[in-house]
Amino acid sequence: MTKLTRRNLMTAAAATGLAGVLGSRLALAADEPLGITLVIPSPVGDVGWGHALAAGLEPIKAAYGDKVKVTVLENIAEGPDADRIMNKTVADGNKFLVAGSFGYQNGALQIARRDPSVTVLHASGFQVAPNFSPFAAKYFQGTYLLGMAAAALSKTGKLGSVSAFAIPELITSINAFTLGAQAVKPDIEVSVVWVNSWFDPAKEQEAAKALIAQKCDVIFSNAQDTPSVISACEEAGVYAFNLNSSMKKYAPKTYLGCIATDWSPFFKASVDAHLAGTFKGANAFLGVADKVVEVVDWNPDIPADVMTKIKEIEVKIADGSFSPFTGPIAKADGSEAVVSGATMADPEIIAMNWHVKGVSTPLPK
C-alpha cells in the first residue's frame, strides 16, 4: 500500500509540472489493476479513524492481489487541496475513490457526477448519486452500551466527551451515550468540548483535562485519531473510551472499551460491485448487524450485574429488537423528540442535529 502526504504530492507537482502530475483522463487497459485511492485528513497511525479505514482495505488486497492497486493519501486537509488531490488521483486513472472525511463531500460528489465510470465512497455524508455512496457507522449502538458502563462506574454523576465536529454522526454518538447512562442513573449529566479538528493532540488533551477539572470521571473520546484523550485520562485515573480502533495499550488501567469499526465488509462488497458493473449508490448506515460495529476491550471493573444487562441489550441491538432511539426521548431544551414507543428511523438519525436531555453543553451554532 502506497502512502502519500500532501507535502509529497505537492512536491511531485512542482518537480514534474502541474499538467504532468494531473495527467489526462485516459481509459485504463483491460488488464491494468483497479486503482483504489483512500484520502484521509490525518495520519494513518496505529489507532483511530484513518487507521480503521486503511485496515478496511487490506482484505481487498488479499482477495484480489495484483488486480487492484491501493494508495493511501494521508494528512489531506479538507478544502481546495483535497479537491485538487482527489481530482488528480482520478485523472491518473484510479476508478475507485474512498473520500474519508465529511468535509470532502462536495469535491468528491463533483468527481462522481463528472465521471460515471468512477465509484466514490464518502465518509459520514448524506449526498447520494448513482456512483456515489455515503457511509457511516452506527456508533450509537456501541456508545449506548458504554454509557451504561460509564454510569455504573461514575462516582460524580458527571460524564464528558471530547468531540471532533458537531456533525450528526458524532451528535448521535453523544446522545446514545447519554441515554445509555441514564438507563442506569437517570440523573446523569454529560458535558461536551468540541475541538473542531480531526487531529489536534494538544487541543484534545487540553479538552480532556478541562472535563476532568469539571469532575467528569468518565470521558468519551469522540472521533479523535490520536490517543491524547485516552492517555490524559489514564494519567488522571479517569475511565475513557473511544471509537474506531482499540487504544487499550495507551490506558491499561482505565480503558473502558472501544466501539471498533471493521469497514472491510462494506469496502469489499463495494469493490465487488464496481468490478461487476453493478454498483448503485445508496446511503450505507452500518452497525452491529452488518458486522461493522463491535464493542471490544470491556474493562473488568464494570460490575457483573451491569455487564449482564449490557450483554442482554447488545444481543437485542444485534437482532433489531432494541434501538437506543426508542421513545420517550426529550431534547435538551425539554421538548419532546420521540414519543413513547416510537423508534427513530435511520434517515432521522442520520440527520440528527439536537442533543437529548442530560447533555448540558449547547450545540455550536
Automatic annotation (TrEMBL):
Pfam families: Bmp
Signal peptide range in chain numbering: 1-29
The keyword Manganese is annotated on this UniProt entry: no
Gene3D superfamilies: 3.40.50.2300
Keyword annotations: Signal
InterPro entries found in the cross-reference section: ABC-Purine-Binding, Peripla_BP_I, PnrA-like, TAT_signal
Alphabetized CDD domains for the sequence: PBP1_BMP-like
Domain ABC transporter substrate-binding protein PnrA-like: 36-317
Lineage: Bacteria, Pseudomonadati, Pseudomonadota, Alphaproteobacteria, Hyphomicrobiales
Organism: Rhizobium aouanii
Protein name according to UniProt: BMP family ABC transporter substrate-binding protein
Organism superkingdom: Bacteria
